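Lay summary

Proteins are chains of building blocks that fold into shapes. Our project writes down both the chain and a compact code for its shape. Here are two examples, one after the other.
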Amino acid sequence: MTTYFIKHELSEGPGTIEEFLVKRGLPFQTIEAWRGDRFPEKITGADAVVSLGGPMNVYEEERYPFLAEEDLFIKRIIGEKVPFLGVCLGAQLLAKAAGAKVYRAAKKEVGWGTVDLTGSGKNDPLFAGSSPSLEVFQWHGDTFDLPENGTLLAIGSEVERQAFSVGDRAYGLQFHVEVSEKIITDWFKADAAPYLVHFLKIKEKYQAEAERIYRNFFV
């Protein structure tokens, strides 16, 4: 059994999620969807599937054909109740696969912000032990409707839908729980300084909250 990471471009990797698995000796494989890697035909025995971020939009399937393949893959995951975690683009892909609309948000979110757990979020196993308000890192221009069978777990002041579940095995996080100093530097290059300064101020708490989510999801 193993965890599958789905990558959509080179710089959008699993970050601290991978570090969590490595520290615990948990096996994983990476599907480089943007490079044409095929999605597994058999997923019933998988420990989990984690779909990461990317610069594309879920509705750009003609430009990025792998998005259509991933949509079908996530539909299978939902149907077979394999644990799934979608991050940013991955969350939007989960929403689409579950029948919801994905579209441009009224405002693009980039940088640090706060999301608040809903009543359902406070009682959901994924956020067990989490603070009711979480400081998170954002970088997205799209948002999504909540799927008919979805549960809203966290909300934001600028973009409302920040975390949700579909059933009890599939989760979407609009924010980037996986970021590290290296990831922020790789993403923003010469413009990374203000984001890094704040990250270093909250690093210990941020990583503790992230690890709590990983532990709740994987263990």
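And here is the second example, written the same way.
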Amino acid sequence: MQLKADIETNAQHKRSVQKKLDKLERERDEKLYEFRSELEENDSVNAMYNQHLHNLRDIEFVRKEKQAEFHIKQREMYIDNLKAQLAMRDQIIKDKLGASITNFLKQDMMTMQDIEG
């Protein structure tokens, strides 16, 4: 009888241990699933972060490119303005002296040579 009771106790203990093992395996599987999900989520976040950094670099490059184009246009406008001022000055000198500034400068150089010579 004692043997039968021991066998029954062992069988109950075995079932209890098996239930605990099954529960632990389920918990392990759940934790593994959560861990894999978090890894996938981290990978997604990393990909989005890297894309964001790439976009920021592109934005910065385009900003610098547009800034450079603006400065080039600004300088071109300044040069065009200076050319217009030179043309206006030449026209005024031509109207007043009857010669262009280039001819005036050449004549001035000849006059200086005549004075020196």
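What can we say about the second shape? The mean pLDDT is 87.
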